[in-house]
Amino acid sequence: MATGSSTPKDAFSTRGQDGGAANWASGARRIPPIQCLVTFEALARLRSVTQSAEELCVTPSAVSHRVKQLEQILGTRLFGRADFSLTTEGSAYLAQVREGLSALQRFPGSDATPGKRRLKLAVTPTFARAILIPRLRQFTEVYPEIDLALQVSIPLLDVVAEDADLVVRFGPGHYADMEHVEIARDMVTPLASPAFLREHGPFERPGDLEGIPLLRSPLEPWRTWFAACGLDWPAPSEGSQFNDIGLMCDAAAAGMGVALVRLKLGAPWLDQGTLVRLFDIQAPSPHAHYLCWRTGTMDRWECAAFAEWLQRAMN
Known about the structure:
Pfam families: HTH_1, LysR_substrate. This is DNA-binding transcriptional regulator, LysR family. By secondary structure, the protein is of the alpha/beta class. It has eleven helices and seven strands. The chain has helices at 17-28, 34-46, 49-56, 60-74, 88-105, 125-142, 194-200, 222-228, 245-253, 263-272, 301-314, and strands spanning 117-123, 146-152, 166-171, 179-192, 259-262, 276-277, 283-293. The chain starts with 16 loop residues before the first helix and ends with a helix.
């Protein structure tokens, strides 16, 4: 058994790693008060005691007192003349102070602008391009204090952004793991490029699609539209396949085949004339877009504000 005074292994005064902690603790006592550092930065930037006092919501005498206190702690003069020009030491220290204050303003894992609320939104690609982005300026104008961070998500195929605050999912709407609300339902109909129609048409009835290249996507099954037309056809088992409706629309516009597309998502291509409808027949999509969130998310006002805005914008 050891005799005499002994030092516990977890004491800050031990050498090595704990010794480093002791050195830091000793140094921490010499760190100037944060209000002195903030005041020094403001006075160096504004060069006016009155303006610095107004910015910091203190009296001019408090500004002078804090700067003098800082100089006493550091043991050096920071300002050389009555116009508040910096000494050589003051200029060097100002750079360090600004770097430190900037670091304190950044919360770990976040690069959002200080004072703003950050909202992470995971959204399906074509919904983002065709529906959300054209409307998003309305939201940013009403809520300039919210910074949006958009991420791509394809939940139907298990491509998800797990750290998102809100998620736009496209699917059947049975989400036991999240709360959700339906935001968009749509109709589907076949679309193709004008050149494809000229080459393979005319298409006068649904049966004319027999033998025609049909572009496929697990996001929009052809059997939905076949059933609406009274066709007892199986889902196509051959042909190009896409997990993004926008890519499938681009492929159809390039003449690769006929795509079954939701009309709202296909609007940009229809408006530009790169895709056209083959028939007047349309069918309800078995899937819809839903806004989803974990329990408790709507307690944050920025999440509730976006959810309310999105539902209005989709009507």
